[in-house]
Structure formats: C-alpha cells, structure tokens
Amino acid sequence: MKADRSEAARRVALVTGASRGIGRAVCLRLARDGYEIVAVARSEMDLNALAVEIDLAGGRCRVYPLDLTDAARIDDELGGMHADVVVNNAGIGVTKPFLELTPADWNRMIALNVNALYHVTRAVLPGMMDRGAGHVCTIGSISGRSAFVGGSCYAATKAFVTAWAESLLLETRERGVKVSVVSPGGVATMFGGKVPTAADAWKLKAEDVADAVSYVVGTPPSVLVHRVEVRTLSAPPPKRG
After folding, report:
1. Which residue, of 45, 197, 219, 238, is most buried by count of CB atoms within 10 Å of its CB?
2. Residue 120 and residue 102: Cα distance in Å, rounded?
3. Residue 144 in contact with residue 227, Cβ under 8 Å?
4. 178: phi > 0 → left, psi -120 to 50 → alpha, else beta; which?
5. For residue 65, how many other CB atoms are within 10 A of its CB?
6. From residue 26, how far is each of 16, 22, 142, 190 by CA, in Å?
7. DSSP 8-state symbol, 235
8. 166-177 burial by CB neighbour count: b if 16+ within 10 A, else e?
C-alpha cells in the first residue's frame, strides 16, 4: 500500500469468500493497490488472520464473519455500506452426476452461487448508483460455457453469472457503475474441499486471478473491461487409463 495515501482518498473494496483461495488473494492484492478491504466470509479466525497480514503491510481491513446464505444478516451487516468495488467471489462447487446431487447440494449451490449475488450486490449498489461511480466484479468460471460431467448445477450457476452481469451492466452503465466478470480456468486452491497436490502444479495460482481483478477494477473511469477469461498456458497432464 502507498504510505502517503490519505484517509479521504482511500477507496473501499468489499470482497466475499475472503478467508482463503481466490478471495484472500484478491484482498491482499487490492490492499496493495490502496483499497481499504471489507472482508466477508464465514470463518472469523481466518478473516482475523487476513486482517493482521494486511495491517502489518500498512493497509486496512475490516472483517465481517457472515454466512452469505443468510439474506437477513447480509442486509443487517452490509446494507447501505459504502463500497467503491464489490468482488462477488464466494461460491461452492459440488460436482456429482445429476442423480447423485442431493437437494441439500443443489440448494446450497443456488443459495451461495446465485442468491448471494443478489443480496450482496443489492446491499451496496444503491450507493454506487447515487454517487455515479462503482464497480461490481464477480468471479465466474470457464465452466459457465463449457459443460462437464458432474457440473449440472455448478456450471449452470456460472452461466447465470454471465447473463446476470451483462443484464446488470445495461442497467447501470449510464449511471457510471461498471459491471465485470472474471472467469478463471483451473486454479490450485482448496475449492470444493480438494487439497492441491503436485498434480495441480499446471493450474493457475489464486494470485493470477487476483491480478486480473486488480486490472479490471483499475481501468480509467471511461473504460470498462466487462469480461475476462484467465487460463494457464500450461496444458493439463494426460489422464491415465
């Protein structure tokens, strides 16, 4: 972070799913870019560790331990909050054949990957519209346009992100509010409960996606990068058998 940045000039970035993976990397990168971070996730312990790391680097981070499937809590905690940027990153991926997906699997993905976009964005968008400035950036996925076995719900939620974001853009751009989607390919994180191994070395790092978010939200006021797809140049290893 730039040490001479005044309090009055400090911009605010609200990031969901901030406790680990892509969300955590986005928080660290945007803090270096000069944003005050509002970090939202379920794990208070992980959020506090993130805040300490940002504070030690000279930045500022406020933490909000929230279950983003709880619409009432989102409204109570985030409603009316000033945010110059919101990064909708929180999500869950349960990849199973359709007939193996339980109602709980399905409903949890819809609640977090789809419904939370409405509630979090709705909490801060009115202020952006009133000020005539702001940026809604959502983490999508290349799976939103590339179907795969086991992705009947997850891939559909990411296709939703693309359609939702483009529709929202058409409503907000005349008021100076930008809307973007950053869609990564495979990323070596613990997403979906999987622990990265040496076999994941070919994938993107969370920091690669954070760099893309930093670029997208850092464009001049008259420039919008609406959709970015980020892939690794490395090819995945061939499947055995």
Report:
1. 219
2. 26
3. no
4. beta
5. 17
6. 10, 6, 19, 15
7. P
8. eebbeebeeeeb
This prediction has a pTM of 0.89
Residue 30 · residue 1 · CB < 8 Å: no
Token pair of 99 as six digits: 């007939």
Question: Is there a domain that residue 47 lies in?
Answer: yes
Residues assigned a catalytic role = 154
CA distance 75 to 122: 9
Query: Could you tell me what percent of the chain has a pLDDT over 90?
Result: 77
| 194 secondary structure, DSSP code | P
Distance, CA of 143 to CA of 156 (rounded, Å): 8
Residue 241 located in a structural domain = no
Domain span including residue 195 = 11-230
Query: How many domains is the chain built from?
Result: 1
Phi, psi for residue 135 in degrees, rounded to 5: -145, 125
Mean model confidence pLDDT for the chain:
90
Q: Are strands 85-88 and 11-16 parallel, antiparallel or unpaired?
A: parallel
In a domain, 6, yes or no: no
Nearest to 218 by CA among 15, 33, 22: 33
DSSP state of 109: H
End-to-end alpha carbon distance in the chain = 49
Among the residues of the chain, which ranges form H helices?
Answer: 21-32, 44-56, 71-78, 103-109, 116-131, 154-172, 206-217
Q: For residues 214 and 70, what is the distance between their CA atoms, to the nearest angstrom?
A: 28
Q: What is the CATH number of the domain that holds 49?
A: 3.40.50.720
Q: How confident is the model at residue 174 (pLDDT cuts 50, 70, 90)?
A: very high
In a domain, 240, yes or no: no
